[in-house]
Amino acid sequence: MPGNTTEYNEVVVSVVRAQIEASTPPTDTNGACFYSKDVGGICHLFVQTSDGSEFQLTPWYHGRKFSAKSKDLFFPNSADWAVNGHAPIDQDDNNSGFSVRYFDDTAETGIGWEDVIPVGATKIKLTRISRAKTAPAGARTVGQKLYNRGSPDDATVAAWSSGSALADIDIPTNENWQYDTEEITLSSLGATAGELTAFQLNRVAPGAGTNLEGHWFLRFFSVEYL
Fold it and tell me: What pLDDT score was predicted for residue 171?
């Protein structure tokens, strides 16, 4: 196969669909062949029909999905983090077989992780499974902020971002697990695809009307690159 190919270490890339970049798709597909070639330093897939027409295929990729249980995440417990305050690990008080990270109800605390953002990704999708430690008397929300810093190749590690506010997580008047997802563009974070990046996800200190009657429990967390 002509052209350059790129292997991504520890990145699973799957083509989920492809679209012909032409106003009129090829009508003669007899003898069509697929091949790759370099376009601006990036490997692209093309199809050529028997009449010599060439069409570029544009794939959509799902990058590696980072999933973690509470015990697998970092503890931001030094001045090298965006905020020096970690969410400790503990047993879930309703089901002792579950481990959770509990976020304080009075101060900003968080969790951390790092990952190489796959080349070609433009967004990240966060999934969180969480609950209130104690059922609140009324509906509440949990505010969150996401910080990041990149480690470029052969360059100085970037400073932590000022943090991007995420959509609030709604907490009902019970202790059931809540499933929440959110998509965020890399450009809004100032993050760069192909770069090793550290992240810190914090619960912001709650204000009046948003505080829980106890901690906020996070049991499961994942990041998918889109």
Answer: 94
- Are 98 and 179 found together in one domain? yes
CA distances from 82 to 78, 99, 111, 145 (A): 9, 25, 11, 11
Residue 44: per-residue pLDDT = 57
pTM to 2 decimal places: 0.72
Residue 187, in any domain of the structure: yes
Asked if pLDDT for residue 155 goes beyond 60, the answer is yes
**Domain of 122?**
65-225
SS3 150: strand
Residue 58 falls within a domain, yes or no?
yes
**Residue 96 contacts by C-beta under 8 Å, 6 or more apart in sequence?**
none
The encoded tokens of residue 160 equal 């932590």
Please report, for the domain that includes residue 77, its CATH number. Answer: 2.60.120.260
Alpha helices in the chain (DSSP H): 186-189
Q: Which two tokens stand for residue 110?
A: 């968080």
